Amino acid sequence: MNDFGVLRLGLTKVSNLSRRLFVWLVLIHYSSFLIIGCVNDTDEAAQFFLKGNVQLQKREYKEAIRYYSEAIAKKPDFADAYNNRGLAKFRNDDREGALADYTRAIDADPDFGTAYFNRAEVRLETGDASGSLADLERIGKQYEDSTFYQTRLGDTFVRLTNLSKAQTAYDRALQLKPDNVEALTNRGALYYSQKDYKSAEADIKQALALNPNQDAALNNQSLLLAHAGKYTAALTYVERALARQSRQPYYLNNKAYLLLKLNRSTEALPLVEESLQRDGQNAWAHHTLGLYWLSQQQPAKALPEFRTAEKLDASVDQLYYYIGTAEFATGNKTAACEAWQRGESIGDDASRRERASHCR
């Protein structure tokens, strides 16, 4: 079967470190009914629908929404208009409105595969990974040979921490289309989260060779360089990612982290604060803010940020080392040793060293 026609969308998040890395896809559906119907100039609903499509392609989302609404007013069961209005709302940062429209499209046409796919997208964005998987499974037989479907399936399994199934889906996506930049980028993120840095580097390198301006891949490359301690080089990559997505909260946080590593804490603070304002559920941003307060010799302010990060995602790198460091600095040696012991139990060498030094 043929793959979907695709419009690229910006970055969103997934679990663990790869929360900062992933790219999703969204789809526009044009049914054969609409193509036939639009031949008739008297079909006002179809004419409004076509005008909406033109505005959507021009990224004039408010105008697109207006035309789709006119189409729906003329034809209240116009599933395609609901779907495309949902897409326009999604791209205009109205997630709840998009979710409602995709659901209306499905209500009007229960076999509307693209609307299920798009609803899966917005459900994933709003934290409903189980709902996203249910929608994807609903259309699995129809779209199992679509590289874009397999990419989204992989994204959803990552959010559900079913990493083996995520790996299988990404591998299938790349079997179907070896130059699928999104699948390469997202599989690279998965490898990174599993500390398979060699495989992550190979996927990200290939993604950037295919599209040097892919912001997610640029951000991933920044993280790989940071892992190697090359913070100045890493900063150039995340700045390139931000040049394409200036408000992306994970990129903002990553840049803040790198600035802290380069002893530029004054510049880092507003970036991590903006990142948290845009997404307060990102454990990595809370971790970065904790690092900022440690750099300012204020462990009492750092500790609540680290604890928040722990509640959101306890797999954040060296989290228990820093929790222990903050606890020790505030005079709570017992809590510090407990944190370092927890870190040592999951293989953190920094926690092991601190525990050996202070807790024996």
Strand/helix succession: EEHHHHHHHHHHHHHHHHHHHHH
The Cα radius of gyration reads 23 Å
* Structure classification: mainly alpha
Which strand order spans the largest sheet, edge to edge or round the barrel? 1-2
Overall helicity: over 70%
Low-confidence stretches: 1-42
Number of helices: 21
Number-wise, the strands total 2
Main sheet: strands, sense, barrel:
2 strands, antiparallel
Please indicate the percent range of residues in DSSP E strands (runs of 2 or more). under 5%
Q: Looking at the chains present, what oligomeric state does this protein adopt? A: single chain
Distance between the termini: 64 Å
Overall geometry comes to elongated
Overall mean pLDDT score?
87
Could you characterize what this model shows?
The structure is a single chain. With 360 residues, this protein is mostly helical. It has helices at residues 32-37, 44-57, 61-74, 79-91, 95-108, 113-125, 129-138, 140-143, 147-159, 163-176, 181-193, 197-210, 215-227, 231-244, 249-261, 265-278, 283-295, 299-312, 319-329, 333-345, 349-358, and strands spanning 6-11, 23-27. Helix 12 (197-210) runs antiparallel to helix 13 and helix 15 (249-261) packs parallel to helix 17. It is elongated, with a radius of gyration of 23 Å.
